[in-house]
Structure formats: C-alpha cells, structure tokens
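Q: My labmate handed me this sequence with no annotations at all. I'd like to see what the chain might look like in three dimensions before we decide whether it's worth expressing. Could you predict it?
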Amino acid sequence: MNTKVEVNFPQYLTTGAVAKHCGVSKVTVLRWIEKGNLISFRLPSGQNRIHRDNFFAFAEKHCIPLKNDGK
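A: Here is what I predict for the chain of 71 residues:
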C-alpha cells in the first residue's frame, strides 16, 4: 500500500530533484551514484534517473526526512 508521500513522488527522479530534496548540489548526487550509495540508471542521452524506491531506501538509510509534497 502506498503512503501519501510515495504517491506524491514521481516514479523516477532526476539528479536535480534528488539534490533539491536533500539540500545538496547535483555534483554531490552524482558522487553518491558513482560511489554506489545511490542506485540509478542512465538514459541513452547520458542523464541519470533514480527510481523512487531506491531514493526512499537511500533517504531512510541516511536519515533524510521526506516532504509530503514530493518537491
């Protein structure tokens, strides 16, 4: 069953969206991905996308609070 927070987050997040939510730069998010701390996949264009469930797991592991609005 999805919580209200999960429903308000898109299925896939950009590195910019993750950075904004966590209060860090996009470069920091890319470092998390390169180190294997945050699971993502690459689009053919070279951009990264993070599945919502992977972001939730990362946020929980690192005690990052989730906003109800998904922004």
